[in-house]
């Protein structure tokens, strides 16, 4: 039967290493990165989204045999497409019109000139729709969460409406041309500054300068942050009327030569505690300062007034009874040559507490201690996470959003924008809609400010900066915290809060219209011919709705007039959120059932309405801790795949994506596996039938080995192999209506994953048959002993079983044998002058170990490439051995360092092969140079 569609590139191959390297690099980019527009949790790297969309839309050359009749011609064309992707994923090219246009042209060619809409029904931070828009496609996104919807609107929906428009603020400079969103960005910056001036008039007096001590040169300085410690009544009855600090650290700066710390001075008689700033100090003093008043992990402290223990119970009951307070322990100021640390003064303490906010968020934090710690200490509402002065500042800026909106409308009219009164949410584009648009980005400034102006922010003594609220996907409890100065020029200042948005807007490239709506993914109505690319929630990883109430609480008062429907609710919707949280669903099993049911429905909805011409791509992220040793069996992953299969999709590919470089991932310990996997799905054939378990295993045995071999040819890193092999394995499983166990019950995805993994193991074991006998001996010996010694007698038996002797393996330069013991030579012991051409007893083992030795030393160097060239005839077998030894080191011997060496070599294999091909002559010495 002929296929009703053309195979797309992503169903055959993608340049994984280039995509992963660009994704990893992107993590370090801050300025102008769209993710800085508004915080959202677990965003996908834009490079990955861009590459996946491209490969999902562009034909694989094998689909066009009239143009590419031979496998060689197809491979050559694939290489050309890879070249386009390799350029496309580079961060520097994300605004490069030439590179983007080349990609767009390719997409147009594969889509018959008519570009299909791309839709992400779990759009979150908007990465996928944003990239769809960049590639010139109509971009659609929806999310259940109002905050995510606003991010999507700000990213893809609003900018195209005002593309290439001049700014409207008074005193616009004479400039010839405003491209894309530059005009909008300039207005956001202008009105952001306008708000700052007004706010300073209203509350500036609460942010006094501080007198600098002589050691900092004297004079006055702007405060960067006030550092507070929470307090509780002393547990000692004799001091029950004294509030004592519970501080996790008194360290202000641990930078070498710039050490500074807080010393509490206790006067038991007067029952007072004051604080002074100390500089320098001995190692012991700094150690003490680093401990603050802690007496153990968690909420265990020491009362510095009475030296009695402050237990978690004491803190909890003090917090719940409203007896938790705060005391100023240090002031950080903008000194002349860096940070200046100043002791607290009464004036600063009093002023901080003098402003009374008119409003604070009343929404309660969820009763879910896994992600929300403050409620246990009586801080129950989101409003409780702020000090009074923080609330006052946030209220002031939030109110000013409304005033700015009114002012923009007046100025926009004066600048000639139509006085059409249609709102932004009704499709308007006149002065009123424009004012509303500007106010969205100003509100994002307030959001950014909430992240830096809560009492969950802390002081980072090694970098001397403030940590924002959401360092993690949770709200932890803080004992000592910072209160940033919103009017300073340092972290968390208002100008910065606005600047992040301005920089993002400046770099956006709105082309087509984009649409972002609020909708439950289970019931979205998709536009015709939709292509799906989506990144659903990962089981129980992140509680989006619960966390986002932190931002929603502030966004709602500022934006309700602009989007009355979205903000006409008390809090973010929770009931339909597809997150498997036991606390919400009354237990683990109920949470899993809810997730599986809802996700199946959402994915079935995609499968029912999306285009038949394109595969769908669905991201699934791994949480490292839930991935068991076999690399696949985790509740979340299996449940998710089960949902995909139950929804009527056949999985035709799985691509592991990572944001860590391949050679770093094991070295860094935890990150041994890809961060996420992209599933490539096609709708299941209506004629699909059921098969038995035995038939399934036979099909796996038939289809998996060639598929794995192909993945090896594509240089998939060994660490990624278990996840990559799931693709072809699930391809077999999901092709059928069901796989029936002996009792006729359908096989679960979890079982299928185990069988696929077993097959991969057998494959890796099987390829050992291709190695020479000495190498096969070395593999078994290494698996049993690593680089340690073992008995000669055992070695002798092993060698005999392979038709060789221990002497032969020794002669091959693989082992050392002495005093009844045998040991594999470590790489440092190998002969540096070894030449494969003159080795009369050449083994695959030696070839690999010498290659790894050079690669470990110099990476993709000339010497490494020369060696690869010299062993060209054995290269593929050497690579096979690297896969085997990775598997043994990582999974059986648990030797992460050794595994990393093989993984890193494969990760660089393509580059090395290229370098080796460029060497024309390896005769003579190692001075042979490459043709570059
Ligand atoms: C993994 S995140 C998407 C992240 C996004 N790809 C990015 O790069 O920023 C998953 C999203 O699914 C949303 N979500 C959860 N349940 C949903 C539902 N029933 N319908 C629509 N969206 C939902 C969450 O609010 C969250 O934004």
Automatic annotation (TrEMBL):
This is Cytoplasmic protein. Residues 13-84 form the DUF1156 domain. It comes from the Bacteria. SUPFAM superfamilies: S-adenosyl-L-methionine-dependent methyltransferases. Pfam families: DUF1156 (PF06634). Residues 351-370 are annotated as: Disordered. InterPro entries: DUF1156, SAM-dependent_MTases_sf.
């Amino acid at each position: 039967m002929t296929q009703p569609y053309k195979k797309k590139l992503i169903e055959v191959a993608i340049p994984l290493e280039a995509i992963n390297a660009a994704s990893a690099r992107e993590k370090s980019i801050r300025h102008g990165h769209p993710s800085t527009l508004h915080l959202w949790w677990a965003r996908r790297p834009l490079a990955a989204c861009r590459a996946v969309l491209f490969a999902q839309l562009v034909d694989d050359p094998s689909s066009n045999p009239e143009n590419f009749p031979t496998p060689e011609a197809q491979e050559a064309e694939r290489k050309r497409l890879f070249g386009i992707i390799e350029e496309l994923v580079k961060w520097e090219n994300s605004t490069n019109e030439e590179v983007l246009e080349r990609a767009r042209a390719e997409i147009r060619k594969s889509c018959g000139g008519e570009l299909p809409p791309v839709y992400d029904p779990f759009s979150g931070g908007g990465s996928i729709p944003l990239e769809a828009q960049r590639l010139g496609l109509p971009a659609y996104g929806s999310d259940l969460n109002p905050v995510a919807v606003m991010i999507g609107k700000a990213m893809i929906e609003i900018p195209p409406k005002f593309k290439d428009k001049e700014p409207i603020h008074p005193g616009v400079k004479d400039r010839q041309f405003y491209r894309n969103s530059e005009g909008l960005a300039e207005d956001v910056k202008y009105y952001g500054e306008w708000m700052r001036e007004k706010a300073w008039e209203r509350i500036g007096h609460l942010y006094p300068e501080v007198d600098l001590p002589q050691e900092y040169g004297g004079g006055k300085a702007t405060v960067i942050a006030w550092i507070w410690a929470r307090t509780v009544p002393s547990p000692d009855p004799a001091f029950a009327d004294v509030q004592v600090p519970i501080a996790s650290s008194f360290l202000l700066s641990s930078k070498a030569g710039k050490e500074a710390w807080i010393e509490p001075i206790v006067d038991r008689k007067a029952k007072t505690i004051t604080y002074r700033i100390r500089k320098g100090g001995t190692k012991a003093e700094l150690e003490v300062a680093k401990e603050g008043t802690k007496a153990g992990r968690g909420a265990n402290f020491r009362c510095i007034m009475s030296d009695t223990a402050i237990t978690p119970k004491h803190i909890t009951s003090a917090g719940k009874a409203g007896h938790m307070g705060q005391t100023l322990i240090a002031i950080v100021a903008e000194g002349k040559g860096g940070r200046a640390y100043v002791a607290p003064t009464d004036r600063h303490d009093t002023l901080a507490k003098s402003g009374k906010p008119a409003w604070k968020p009343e929404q309660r934090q969820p009763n879910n201690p896994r992600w929300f710690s403050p409620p246990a200490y009586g801080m129950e509402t989101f409003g409780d996470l702020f000090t009074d002065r923080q609330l006052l500042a946030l209220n002031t800026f939030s109110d000013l959003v409304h005033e700015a909106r009114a002012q923009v409308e007046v100025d926009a009219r004066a600048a000639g924008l139509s006085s059409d009164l249609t709102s932004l949410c009704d499709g308007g584009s006149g002065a009123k809609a424009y004012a509303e648009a500007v106010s969205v980005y100003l509100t994002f400034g307030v959001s950014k400010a909430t992240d830096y102006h809560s009492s969950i922010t802390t002081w980072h003594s090694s970098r001397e900066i403030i940590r924002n609220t959401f360092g993690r996907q949770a709200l932890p409890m803080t004992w000592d915290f910072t209160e940033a100065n919103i009017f300073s020029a340092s972290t968390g200042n208002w100008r910065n809060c606005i600047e992040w948005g301005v920089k993002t807007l400046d770099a956006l490239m709105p082309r087509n219209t984009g649409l972002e709506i609020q909708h439950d993914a289970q019931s979205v109505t998709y536009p015709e011919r939709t292509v799906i690319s989506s990144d659903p929630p990962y089981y129980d990883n992140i509680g989006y709705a619960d966390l986002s109430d932190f931002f929603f609480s502030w966004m709602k008062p500022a934006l309700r007039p602009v989007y009355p429907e979205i903000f006409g609710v008390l809090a973010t919707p929770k009931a339909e959120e597809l997150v498997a949280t036991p606390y919400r669903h009354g237990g683990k099993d109920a949470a899993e059932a809810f997730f599986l049911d809802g996700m199946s429905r959402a994915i079935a909805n995609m499968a029912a309405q999306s285009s038949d011409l394109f595969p769908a791509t669905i991201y699934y992220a791994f949480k490292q801790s839930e991935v068991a040793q076999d690399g696949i069996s985790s509740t979340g992953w299996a449940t998710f795949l089960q949902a995909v299969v139950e929804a009527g999709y056949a999985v035709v590919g799985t691509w592991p994506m990572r944001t860590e470089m391949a050679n770093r991932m094991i070295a860094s310990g935890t990150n041994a596996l890809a961060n996420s996997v992209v599933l490539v799905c096609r709708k299941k054939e209506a004629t699909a039938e059921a098969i038995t378990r035995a038939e399934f295993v036979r099909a796996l045995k038939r289809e998996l080995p060639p598929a794995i071999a192909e993945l090896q040819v594509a240089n998939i890193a060994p660490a990624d192999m278990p996840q990559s092999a799931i693709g072809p394995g699930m391809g077999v499983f999901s092709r059928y209506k069901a796989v029936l166990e002996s009792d006729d019950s359908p096989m679960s995805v979890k079982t299928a994953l185990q069988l696929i993994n077993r097959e991969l193991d057998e494959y890796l074991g099987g390829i050992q048959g291709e190695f020479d006998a000495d190498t096969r001996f070395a593999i078994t010996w290494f698996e049993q002993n690593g680089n340690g010694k073992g008995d000669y007698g055992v070695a002798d038996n092993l060698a005999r079983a392979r038709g060789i002797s221990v002497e032969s393996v020794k002669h091959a330069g693989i082992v050392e044998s002495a005093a009844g013991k045998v040991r594999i030579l470590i790489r440092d012991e190998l002969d540096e002058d070894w030449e494969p051409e003159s080795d009369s007893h050449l083994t695959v083992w030696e070839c690999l170990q010498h290659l790894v030795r050079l690669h470990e030393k110099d990476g993709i160097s000339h010497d490494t490439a020369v060696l690869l060239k010299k062993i060209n005839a054995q290269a593929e077998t050497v690579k096979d051995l690297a896969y085997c030894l990775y598997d043994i080191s990582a999974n059986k011997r648990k030797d992460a360092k050794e595994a990393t060496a093989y993984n890193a070599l494969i990760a660089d294999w393509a580059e090395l092969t290229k370098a080796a091909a460029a060497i024309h002559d390896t005769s003579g010495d190692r001075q042979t140079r490459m043709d570059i």
